[in-house]
Amino acid sequence: MAEKSDFQKRLMQIGIDGVLSASIAVGNRLQLFHALAKVGSEDKPATPAQVAEESGCKERYVKEWLSVMATGDLITVTEDEKFFIKKENIAERLEQGGMMCLDVGCGKGFHAVLLAQNFPKSNFTGIDVTLEAVHLANQQRKDNGETFDNLAFIQMDGAKMDPDWTEKFDLVTIFDACHDQMRPDLCLKEIYRVLKPGDALGLGAMWGQERALKMLKDAGFSNARIVATPFYEGSTLYVSTKD
């Protein structure tokens, strides 16, 4: 059989990625990732039946979905066909607790909720310029039955944060929101202000890299670096610390 051309390989990969993306969307909508994380772990992987029972979905379809996720290296499958979500390296400081973390442009609160859930000993604040987003974030917590003492959502402009927040936070994240700001340059300068010296910013943005790195440098982040995001190639992740 003739070897496939680069173009054919590219088309095939697009098709594979399309199926994987659609499956991720389905899993998110049906809370399958949440169900798997709840009933399965690296020490005690879950069967498709356990995930199906937790999610309220049919086992036959859940098994197919789990297989797709495992094929895409998003979850791990054992030799006896049990599944779990592998925990990534978790920052020691977050586990020990006491960290103050801020998510700018939090939207419905997806990232802030996820972090608060996984690091209950640290504190998280999500801010968004629209009151509607803050209401949605709080409503999502209510709908999911999730309540956290270490999480709050506040309506606030990322380009004009609370004056009392100077050097308050150990970690600031802003995912897919900075490039939508009216003045992203002011937002980055405010983030620099509210960060403690030596602590970190994680920025995910659909920007040209040259422009993003320049804005970060102008805001005071002189050591910004790009981190690969193989499962989200449409966005670039920048990590930097405050000098």
Summarize the structure.
The chain is of the alpha/beta class and 243 residues long. 42% of the residues lie in helices and 19% in strands.
Strand order of the largest sheet: 5-4-3-6-7-9-8
Order of helices and strands: HHHHEEHEHEHEEHEHEE
Mean pLDDT value: 86
Rounded to the nearest angstrom, the distance between the terminal CA atoms is 57 Å
Radius of gyration: 20 Å
In terms of DSSP E residues, the strand content is: 15-25%
Per DSSP E runs of 2 or more residues, the count of β-strands stands at 9
Contiguous helical run count: 9
> How does the overall form come out from the CA principal axes?
globular
Query: Strand pairing plus helix content: what structural class?
Result: alpha/beta
Point out poorly predicted stretches. Answer: none
CATH class of the largest domain: Alpha Beta
**Largest beta-sheet details:** 7 strands, mixed
Helix percent reads: 40-55%
CATH architecture of the largest domain, please?
Answer: 3-Layer(aba) Sandwich
Assigned CATH superfamily of the largest domain = Vaccinia Virus protein VP39
GO molecular function: methyltransferase activity
Protein name: Methyltransferase domain protein
Pfam families: Methyltransf_31 (PF13847), WHD_Rv2258c (PF21320)
GO biological process, one term: methylation
